[in-house]
Write a structure and sequence with these properties.
This protein is an alpha/beta fold. The protein has 15 helices and 19 strands. Bound molecules: NADP nicotinamide-adenine-dinucleotide phosphate.
């Protein structure tokens, strides 16, 4: 896109990209400040993650009572959650309710993908190009693309020859797909794979689960929310509204402040049992901090979880395959499950160990490993995402002097608090690398916090900058990266390959994508703002 050659169809103050949790709130906040906002969404509806990930069994692993917006008493009062952990459809309905209630749709261009955004230095504006052909010029560019939006697909050759259906979980067709009686293969056994497998196992004719890494999994307790439970939930809202923003990972619970080594072993066991009974991510997020920092503590908790899992696996030969041994508990995302391990009791469910015998290629009728071929009508890729940088990197974002965001992140993944990047003035990101995000935060909490910071910052710059331009200094950005790495490297997580580090995408520079410590992060953001956006240059 050349700025001179581009026809600019419209000028607006801000462009918001994406209509998920962050994009909807950003549109609402910026519009509320009197800005003329254009929002673009590639999908045909709102929802973001909850629009795209409509695979069987998709649901949140965060409790509904904290997986929502806090900024509006009306929204909190009017929406009635139905399940402790809402399924995709309920969450999507909630986001549609919010869009309607706040009259957001009128400013969103659906079915419109932003393809490029170039900074025009002379005009101090972004020129934003969409696949619709028209360009929009804006002062503030706010991509709200989510950390997990760009599907990662395995590079198995021969896909064009395969005569069956291949689906990535994050691109599930809106009309669904009939799997009844079919021979289905699922590649991937992490958070998504587990949800798909436990959901479809009972209806398919044969299920082949291609597992490379066994994961720890916690049985989810997911009661329906009746009127009485809903009232109790509502009564907790005022407290939760504060707690989520102060907590370590954006939930209504927090880490156990006790020192692991000072707590007797029997008491530790009682603590683990009590946390396990919660049936939630509390087993991870309310545990002792040493569990993710200290090998011995981690080993004890890993053993505890394996013991719980083993008790659910009926076939002893399967236990050795389904129990995780390659990493410690909590050093990769721990899924919640509902009957996952039990589906392997079914005679038509087969576990294929593709660590020992990797998948080599598609065939015309299925998949083949080094030693066997599998005939499959449908292949489901639950193979995750190019997280953090993937979606933003797909856009041709060019800052000062044509600097390409994609190329910069190919060299090194770096941001100033995940909110801005030097060389890209007035570009504000949410869920970007080095801010707390999917790995270490209940997403709606951190997205609301980041949108609020961005909106307040824009408000400040509008009133104080002659040109109304803000950008972090290279020194501040480097300082944030150093601090981020210090926090990350003190944990076992930084030593464990996973999408959290970008190690699932070949060639991606390795760095923990999410900042660890949502409450601390919020304080750091507030501190920067209170000091007149120290570390940022406003002109
Ligand atoms: P993921 O955690 O990256 O898992 C991808 C899976 O695909 C892994 O089991 C991986 O094996 C496997 N895989 C990738 N390439 C493969 C290959 N060539 N051969 C065999 N197996 C291969 O992705 P995800 O499960 O979609 O989850 C991503 C994140 O989304 C989660 O961590 C979570 O943050 C979020 N999520 C949340 C929910 C929820 O809240 N309920 C649900 C789903 C997802 P390896 O482990 O060996 O690489």
């Amino acid at each position: 896109m050349s700025q001179n050659a581009t026809e600019v169809a419209r000028d607006c103050d801000a462009v918001v990209i994406g209509a998920g949790f962050a994009g909807l709130y950003a549109l609402h906040r910026l519009r509320g400040m009197g800005l003329d906002v254009c929002a673009f969404e590639a999908g045909s509806g709102v929802g973001g993650t909850w629009y795209w990930n409509r695979y069987p069994g998709a649901r949140t692993d965060s409790e509904a009572e904290v997986y929502q917006y806090w900024f509006s008493d009306e929204l909190l009062a009017e929406w009635n959650w139905q399940e402790r952990f809402p399924a995709q459809a309920e969450t999507e309905r909630y986001l549609n309710f919010v869009a309607d209630r706040l009259d957001l749709r009128k400013d969103i261009a659906f079915n419109t993908r932003v393809t490029a955004a170039h900074w025009d230095e002379a005009a101090a504006r972004w020129v934003v190009q969409t696949d619709g052909g028209d360009a929009v010029r804006c002062r503030w560019l706010v991509p709200c693309l989510g950390p997990l939006s760009e599907p990662a697909e395995p590079p198995f050759p021969g896909r064009e020859a395969y005569r069956g259906t291949v689906l990535h979980t994050a691109r599930w067709p809106r009309e669904g797909i009939d799997l009844k009686g079919k021979r289905v293969g699922v590649v991937g056994t992490a958070a998504t794979g587990i949800q798909v497998i436990q959901t479809i196992a009972h209806e398919v004719g044969a299920l082949y689960v291609f597992q490379r890494t066994a994961n720890y999994t916690i049985p989810m307790r997911n009661p329906k929310v009746d009127d009485a439970a809903r009232e109790r939930m509502r009564a907790r809202y005022p407290e939760n509204r504060q707690r989520v923003f102060d907590s370590f990972i954006g939930f209504h619970f927090d880490l156990d402040p006790r020192d692991w080594d000072q707590v007797p072993k029997e008491e530790r066991r009682r603590t683990l049992e009590a946390l396990w009974d919660k049936g939630s991510l509390q087993f991870w997020g309310s545990n002792f901090i040493k569990v993710i920092m200290d090998e011995a503590a981690n080993r004890e908790v890993s053993d505890f979880v394996r013991e719980k899992m083993r008790a659910r696996i009926r076939k002893p030969e399967l236990a050795e395959k389904l129990l995780p041994t390659t990493h410690g508990f909590g050093t990769r995302r721990t899924p919640l499950d509902s009957g996952y391990l039990e589906v392997f009791d079914l005679d038509h469910v087969h576990l294929v160990d593709v660590r020992a015998d990797p998948i080599q290629a598609f065939t015309d009728t299925g998949l083949k490993t080094g030693t066997a071929a599998y005939e499959l009508d449908v292949i489901i890729l639950a193979t995750g995402f190019d997280a953090g940088t993937g979606t933003l990197g797909r856009l041709d974002i060019r800052g000062r002097d044509g600097l390409s965001l994609k190329d910069e992140w190919k060299k090194e993944i770096s941001t100033a608090m995940g909110l801005q990047k030097n060389g890209f003035p007035n570009l504000f990101m949410t869920a970007a690398p080095l801010a707390p995000s999917a790995a270490f935060c209940n997403m709606p909490t951190c997205l609301q916090q980041q949108v609020d910071w961005i909106a307040d910052c824009i408000d400040h710059v509008r009133r104080t900058g002659d040109r109304q331009v803000i950008e972090p200094t290279p020194e501040f950005e480097a300082q944030w990266v150093k601090h981020h790495d210090e926090v990350a490297n003190a944990t076992l997580i930084a030593k464990t390959p996973s999408w959290w580090l970008g190690s699932n995408v070949p060639g991606k520079p390795q760095r923990l994508l999410s900042y660890i410590g949502a409450g601390n992060y919020r304080q750091a953001c507030n501190d920067v703002a209170q000091r007149g956006y120290a570390g940022f240059v406003i002109s």
